[in-house]
Design brief:
This protein folds into 3 domains: 4-53, Ubiquitin-associated (UBA) domain (Helicase, Ruva Protein, domain 3); 62-113 and 160-198, Elongation factor Ts, dimerisation domain (Tetrahydropterin Synthase, Chain A); 119-159. Helices cover 53% and strands 16% of the residues. It contains 8 helices and 5 strands; from the N terminus they run αααββααααββαβ. The strands form 2 sheets. A 3-stranded antiparallel beta sheet has the order 1-2-5. The chain has a two-stranded antiparallel ribbon with strand order 3-4. Strand 3 (165-166) and strand 4 form a beta hairpin. The protein starts with 8 loop residues before the first helix and ends with a strand.
């Protein structure tokens, strides 16, 4: 493992540009990862998510309503993204996050912010379909139930915004992206609601 003296300042700059983390955090992550940028990013993400967990749950009543219209003007989305203070709501970083989430909504067409917000009727219908599918597999009941639960987890990851893979970086979810921003910005961030609009629908 390299010492702090061995860490290339250019590597630190590159890591900072990609993560917005502090100089010392970048240096330590590069030391821990032996200079591997990809591993360093993962280290910073894990630390950021842990740090963000202490802020989740704090009241978030300020924010922005961000609109994104896809080229061609046939498809768009509105997203309400909340934070704790008006100061943060007016920053470019917060507004850019809101725009990214609006673009995600356009790209992936989620039906709810999180799994808890999925309508009960929709869940019942999905579970019923999966149960019918596994009944034809001639497997023990406990295995059938496990398969159904796995299918439901996949369904959540496709339709719940916070559980979807981020369209720019499938290695993280939208929930992870928000937690990373919470650790950088220092305030709780909440997706309150969204609306996707498409011509003819």
């Amino acid at each position: 493992m390299p010492s702090s003296k061995d860490v290339d300042i250019e590597l630190i700059k590159r890591l900072r540009a990609r993560t917005n983390a502090g100089i010392l955090d970048c240096k330590n992550a590069l030391i821990e990862s032996s200079g591997d940028i990809k591993k360093a990013i993962q280290i910073l993400r894990k630390k950021g998510i842990a740090k963000a967990a202490t802020r989740i749950g704090r009241e978030a009543r300020e924010g922005v309503i961000m609109a994104y219209v896809h080229p061609g003007d046939q498809l768009g989305a509105l997203v309400e993204l909340n934070c704790e203070t008006d100061f943060v709501a007016r920053t470019d970083e917060f507004k850019n996050l809101a725009k990214e989430i609006a673009m995600q909504v356009v790209a992936t067409n989620p039906i709810s912010v999180d799994r808890e917000s999925i309508p009960e009727e929709t869940l019942k219908e999905e579970r019923s379909i999966y149960e019918d599918q596994v009944k034809r597999m001639d497997k023990p009941e406990e295995i059938q139930e496990k398969i159904v639960e796995n299918k439901l987890e996949k369904f959540y990851s496709e339709v719940a915004l916070l559980e979807q893979e981020y369209f720019r970086d499938p290695s993280i979810t939208i929930g992870d992206l928000i937690k990373e921003k919470i650790s950088v910005i220092g305030e709780n961030i909440v997706v309150r609601r969204f609306k996707r609009l498409q011509i003819g629908e």
